[in-house]
Write a structure and sequence with these properties.
By secondary structure, the protein is of the alpha+beta class. The protein contains five helices and ten strands. The protein has a single domain, classed as Glutaredoxin. Helix 2 packs across helix 5. The longest helix is centred in the first third of the chain and has 24 residues. The protein starts with a helix and ends with a helix.
Length: about 210
């Protein structure tokens, strides 16, 4: 990614992140008298990520895995899902994100089996099924790459308020894209947006609460 494109994408991301955090703080989005995941008599969870509990978007996806199987959130019921939008030729942000996820699984210990990391490519033109398979496996054997055609990719990104754009670079191109990771609880409900700059320890702090049913 060209340096100027990286800076521009970072500025756009910071602005969007600020707006998202403001919206999350201003609209608790209560279900009845309590938030989803909050049990009567218990304190609400204290997340380090952006609390999206009850958000009206990011309900589901319908994408294809490298084996050609169509996948939706229902396939991962019982697990916490970390959903990230990126692409395999990303030189910095995506590898950093997935490397953090590897550390998250390590820190979770036995609970790592209850977490599924998914990367949705925003570059289906180049990220073929085999390319996706090899890329995610290079980080962790449990990581899963999903893809759609151009229209399905755009529809899915829009459903999650994800920004991405093709940027020409000489004779080729790169992709500017937002860098939040979305977290779903074991019931398939959107709960969190994790910032790119959050540490693995911060992510584990949040996931342990969700795994505990908070």
């Amino acid at each position: 990614m060209a340096f100027s494109s990286t800076i521009a994408a970072t500025r756009r991301h910071v602005l969007k992140l600020g707006l998202l955090a403001t919206a999350a703080a201003a609209s608790p989005l209560l279900v009845g008298c309590q938030k989803v995941g909050e049990k009567a008599g218990e304190e609400a969870p204290s997340f380090k990520g952006i609390d999206l509990t009850g958000a009206p978007y990011g309900k589901d996806f319908r994408l294809t895995d490298p084996d050609g199987k169509e996948r939706t959130l229902a396939d991962f019921k019982g697990k916490v899902v970390l959903l990230y939008f990126g692409f395999t030729q990303c030189p910095d942000v995506c590898p950093t994100e997935l490397t953090r996820d590897v550390e998250v699984l390590r820190l979770l210990g036995p609970d790592a089996d209850r977490v599924q990391v998914i990367m949705v490519t925003v570059d289906p033109e180049r990220d073929t099924p085999q390319v996706l398979r090899n890329y995610t496996a290079a980080f962790h054997p449990s990581f899963l790459g999903l893809y759609g055609d151009a229209q399905r990719t755009r529809e899915t990104a829009d459903a999650f308020k994800v920004y991405y754009k093709k940027v020409p670079t000489g004779g080729s191109y790169t992709m500017d894209h937002s860098t939040l990771t979305y977290v779903f609880d074991p019931e398939g409900r959107l709960r969190l947006a994790l910032r790119h700059e959050q540490s693995a320890a911060d992510v584990v702090h949040d996931l342990k609460q969700i795994l505990a049913g908070k």
